[in-house]
Amino acid sequence: MRATLAVLLLLLVGCEPEPDVEPLPCRNPEPGLADLGEGDLASGFVDLQDGDELPLIFGPQGMHMVVVSARITDLEPAQAGGIGNRVTVAIRHEGEVVGGTVADMEPSEAVGETTDFLGIRAIFTAAEVELLDEALAEVEVIVRDGCGRELAAERPLRLVL
Fold it and tell me: Of 88, 101, 119, 144, which residue is the least packed, with the fewest Cβ within 10 Å?
């Protein structure tokens, strides 16, 4: 099970090489704040609280997944030709990583000081899904800002089929 996920995450990370550039100085010395939620372009960002349910769905790629969103306050923007916004999602159950994704993403929405990354899909293998139905899992989202800083939010959520 761990080997399958490790190979999957390696393939996802290997798809887009990191740019070999130094980040520009940050305009704001303080990093922004991250929050974890769900939602897509239609619904917008929906805040999640500790213990809330997060649906496990069967995705079009033929694997189970969860869809989460990140809201960042005071996001340092991606730099042209340089560091972009890399979004990482990790799902842990009993200390083991059982699902996740890594992707370079453009923000879905930016209003005032808040920037949303909506509809981030974190993938599981079929073997893990049966173990995770109704399980409490730690879901973490990390967004790397244009200065290379990582902004993270994590909360325990109940995964449900």
Answer: 119
Residue 25 lies in a domain: no
Alpha helices in the chain (DSSP H): 2-14, 126-132
Number of domains in the chain: 1
Distance CA 142, CA 86 (A): 8
Structural domain contains residue 153: yes
Range of the domain at 80: 2-16+32-160
pLDDT in tens, the chain (161 residues): 444 444 344 444 444 555 566 666 787 778 889 999 999 889 999 999 999 999 999 888 888 999 999 999 988 888 766 677 899 999 999 999 999 999 988 888 888 789 999 999 999 876 778 778 899 999 999 999 888 889 999 999 999 98
